[in-house]
């Protein structure tokens, strides 16, 4: 079982990676966290000090570690699939699941923790919604290359279980 969880920031990729890894007894990982550990800096610091290009290169490099792993569930970053051939690579090296929540839900979830997220930290509530709308429109064609897409009630233990049973 090699699962890559993809989707916009705020969709719960990290939450689900943790939950699924416990339930299915496989290693659960978070790509943002691995990048932060590797760089010994927060994502916000990497963006501010080294720039987004550097972050994307590092993210892509750390993602490739999963080529060696036999079984895992990995929460990727919201932008991961959209840079440096990462989507193709994930589809060749495992199963990709797009967690697709509406932008209104994402905006509500993201409002409180904006400071830690470099792409949205300076946005007003209204601008945040607009930003998410634009980003999703921009990224949908890449997210849409995923093996599975979960929406609504399918974003649940049962929804994931249906997929996992086919790949365990
Ligand atoms: C990003 C999403 C973040 C993080 C970085 C950039 C994006 O991950 O990788 O701030 O481009 O959407 P989460 O989706 O885990 O918040």
From TrEMBL:
<keyword id="KW-0418">Kinase</keyword>
<feature type="binding site">
    <location>
        <position position="56"/>
    </location>
    <ligand>
        <name>substrate</name>
    </ligand>
</feature>
<comment type="function">
    <text>Catalyzes the specific phosphorylation of the 3-hydroxyl group of shikimic acid using ATP as a cosubstrate.</text>
</comment>
<dbReference type="GO" id="GO:0016301">
    <property type="term" value="F:kinase activity"/>
</dbReference>
<dbReference type="InterPro" id="IPR031322">
    <property type="entry name" value="Shikimate/glucono_kinase"/>
</dbReference>
<keyword id="KW-0547">Nucleotide-binding</keyword>
<dbReference type="InterPro" id="IPR027417">
    <property type="entry name" value="P-loop_NTPase"/>
</dbReference>
<feature type="binding site">
    <location>
        <position position="14"/>
    </location>
    <ligand>
        <name>Mg(2+)</name>
    </ligand>
</feature>
<protein>
    <recommendedName>
        <fullName>Shikimate kinase</fullName>
        <ecNumber>2.7.1.71</ecNumber>
    </recommendedName>
</protein>
<keyword id="KW-0057">Aromatic amino acid biosynthesis</keyword>
<feature type="binding site">
    <location>
        <position position="32"/>
    </location>
    <ligand>
        <name>substrate</name>
    </ligand>
</feature>
<feature type="binding site">
    <location>
        <position position="117"/>
    </location>
    <ligand>
        <name>ATP</name>
    </ligand>
</feature>
<keyword id="KW-0028">Amino-acid biosynthesis</keyword>
<comment type="pathway">
    <text>Metabolic intermediate biosynthesis; chorismate biosynthesis; chorismate from D-erythrose 4-phosphate and phosphoenolpyruvate: step 5/7.</text>
</comment>
<dbReference type="Pfam" id="PF01202">
    <property type="entry name" value="SKI"/>
</dbReference>
<comment type="similarity">
    <text>Belongs to the shikimate kinase family.</text>
</comment>
<keyword id="KW-0460">Magnesium</keyword>
<keyword id="KW-0808">Transferase</keyword>
<keyword id="KW-0067">ATP-binding</keyword>
<dbReference type="InterPro" id="IPR000623">
    <property type="entry name" value="Shikimate_kinase/TSH1"/>
</dbReference>
<feature type="binding site">
    <location>
        <position position="78"/>
    </location>
    <ligand>
        <name>substrate</name>
    </ligand>
</feature>
<feature type="binding site">
    <location>
        <begin position="10"/>
        <end position="15"/>
    </location>
    <ligand>
        <name>ATP</name>
    </ligand>
</feature>
<comment type="subunit">
    <text>Monomer.</text>
</comment>
<keyword id="KW-0479">Metal-binding</keyword>
<keyword id="KW-0963">Cytoplasm</keyword>
<feature type="binding site">
    <location>
        <position position="139"/>
    </location>
    <ligand>
        <name>substrate</name>
    </ligand>
</feature>
